[in-house]
């Protein structure tokens, strides 16, 4: 890659980091399609670069959540049993399938993410008593309300099943799977949103590392893409989490939903051999 | 050494113990992350000095020792990327011992299984 394209990847990664962090989707949701659509980076190379950025983001960002007990480590360990296996399966699929098919899957996943983002529901109150055979009950202090919140994750088996699917998609797309884990934990397992985000942030690094070694073993990691990507995403995510605290506007969310939709449609058209102007 | 609160008999670590485990986990992950990022930046700098650009392929595991012995930029960079990839696994390895010490055998075992899956993924080429 030319230095100009490397600089472009760095700038795109910063923007993707800002958007992904503001929406809680992770940078990969924007980064992988942007690199593929606008920079002509091979999709599998973009997926591998995204995976490394996700690990950096997750490992660096988890500290604050762990300190505030927003990460439920025991719940993460239970869910990672199926998610990591799914991620290895997803990594194998990336190596085996044609880039066109991968583009189609990514396009459909982005469509799903934009729909989920558009229809985001208010969270239900947490479950505070009942059976807890895996001892997953946790208490954290809600920083906004300054009060303790106790919850017991429920419906573990359906949650584990859905998490394995999130792992497969994560392994296939290198996007961490936070966009899928968050709705699984809040809707199916009734974990409060703040604890879900803290736990998901910790989990995505573990999930992605399971498939990242497969990418490395099969020569999919291109340092000329991965280095600017991980530096850019690290900078963008820090900025995004600060901007996101101030800008909670629905309009901004809708605009980013439109961007995700545009990227999804472009990828879907590309997978059928139709190229929009400006796309590579 | 500060005196420790005895762990409850039901296998759930005490609050103090959980906070200590979480703090150490965060520190271990942060140190691994910084080591990886430092190596990536050092390797990138060596690449720019010697070749004027970053290489397009990571160094395969088998060639890494020779590359590192020769202080090749791409080898140092690849080592940095590998350290980043194992950062989550170092945290899990710590959890196995920490949870076991805190009397939480169930979650210590779960951590061991997750680590085994991650190690399998490192060695797995899947005949591909």
Return the string of H and E elements of chain B: HHHH
Major interchain interface with per-chain residue totals: A-B, 51 and 57 residues
Count of DSSP strands of chain A: 2
Could you estimate the helical fraction of the residues of chain A in percent? over 70%
Task: Indicate the low-confidence ranges of chain A by residue numbers.
Answer: none
Supply the number of helical segments of chain A: 10
| Beta-strand proportion of chain B | under 5%
Distance between the termini of chain A: 15 Å
Q: How does the major sheet of chain A shape up?
A: 2 strands, antiparallel
Beta-strand residue percentage of chain A:
under 5%
Order of helices and strands of chain A: HHHHHEEHHHHH
What's the pLDDT, averaged over the residues of chain A?
84
- Rg of Cα set of chain B: 19 Å
Separate helix tally of chain B: 4
Main β-sheet of chain B: number of strands, strand sense, barrel status?
none
Report the mean per-residue pLDDT of chain B as an integer: 87
Domains counted in the coordinates of chain B: how many? 1
Spatially, the strands of the biggest sheet of chain A line up as 1-2
Overall form of chain B = elongated
| Rg estimate of chain A, integer Å | 18 Å
Regarding quaternary structure, what we see is heterodimer
């Amino acid at each position: 890659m030319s230095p100009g394209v490397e600089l472009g990847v760095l700038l795109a990664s910063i923007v993707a980091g800002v958007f992904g962090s503001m929406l809680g989707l992770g940078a990969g949701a924007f980064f992988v399609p942007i690199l593929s659509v606008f920079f002509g980076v091979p999709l599998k190379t973009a997926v591998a670069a995204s995976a490394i950025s996700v690990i950096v983001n997750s490992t660096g960002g988890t500290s604050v959540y762990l300190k505030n007990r927003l990460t439920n480590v025991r719940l993460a360990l239970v869910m990672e049993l199926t998610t990591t296996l799914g991620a290895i399966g997803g990594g194998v699929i990336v190596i085996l399938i044609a880039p066109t098919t991968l583009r189609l899957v990514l396009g459909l996943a982005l469509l799903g993410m934009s729909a989920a983002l558009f229809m985001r529901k208010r969270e239900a109150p947490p479950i505070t008593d009942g059976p807890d055979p895996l001892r997953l009950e946790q208490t954290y202090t809600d920083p906004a309300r300054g009060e303790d919140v106790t919850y017991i994750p429920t419906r573990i088996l359906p949650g584990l099943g859905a998490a394995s699917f999130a792992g497969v998609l994560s392994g296939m797309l290198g996007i961490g799977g936070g966009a899928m884990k968050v709705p699984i934990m809040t809707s199916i397992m009734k974990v409060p949103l703040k604890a879900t985000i803290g736990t998901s942030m910790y989990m995505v690094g573990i999930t992605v590392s399971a498939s990242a070694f497969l990418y490395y073993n099969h020569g999919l990691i291109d340092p000329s893409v991965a280095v600017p990507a991980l530096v850019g995403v690290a900078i963008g995510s820090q900025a995004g989490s600060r901007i996101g605290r101030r800008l909670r506007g629905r309009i901004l969310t809708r605009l980013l939903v439109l961007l995700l939709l545009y990227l999804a449609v472009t990828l879907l058209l590309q997978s059928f051999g139709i190229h929009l102007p400006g796309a590579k | 050494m500060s005196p420790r609160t005895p762990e409850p008999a039901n296998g759930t670590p005490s609050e103090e113990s959980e906070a200590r485990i979480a703090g150490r986990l965060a520190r271990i992950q942060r140190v691994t992350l910084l080591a990886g990022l430092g190596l990536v930046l050092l390797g990138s700098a060596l690449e720019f000095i010697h070749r004027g650009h970053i290489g397009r392929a990571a160094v395969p595991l088998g060639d890494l020792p020779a590359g590192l012995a020769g202080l090749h930029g791409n080898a140092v960079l690849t080592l940095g990327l590998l350290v980043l990839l194992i950062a989550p696994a170092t945290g899990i390895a710590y959890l196995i011992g920490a949870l076991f010490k805190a009397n939480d055998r169930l979650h210590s075992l779960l951590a061991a299984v997750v680590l085994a899956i991650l190690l399998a993924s490192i060695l797995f080429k899947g005949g591909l």
